[in-house]
């Protein structure tokens, strides 16, 4: 049973649009949380003492750390998606 059965067509469209907007905002928040996480992890790992400019070693470490973090996250996400899809069949 649809929880929007009592709404008019225009109200259903508005509710649907609102749900879509909420989902987009949740994705944005999740992305921001992910960025904060790898910023914290990589900063702690790579930056010994902050200065006015990053040296080459620190910059390279930060870049590699973020890339590894993203690659790992994508691998885990893809594996989880595969598991869910296999379980749904």
Describe the protein in words:
The chain has two helices and no strands. The chain has 89 residues and is mainly alpha-helical. It is elongated and about 60 Å long.
Question: What attributes does this structure have?
Answer:
89 residues; 80% helix; mainly alpha; elongated; single chain; 0% strand
Shape: elongated
Major sheet description: none
Distance between the termini: 24 Å
CA-based gyration radius: 21 Å
Helix-strand category: mainly alpha
Q: Can you count the beta strands? A: 0
Give the strand content.
under 5%
Mean pLDDT: 86
What is the overall number of helices? Answer: 2
Series of H and E elements: HH
Given as residue ranges, the uncertain stretches (5+ residues, pLDDT < 50) are none
Helix percentage: over 70%
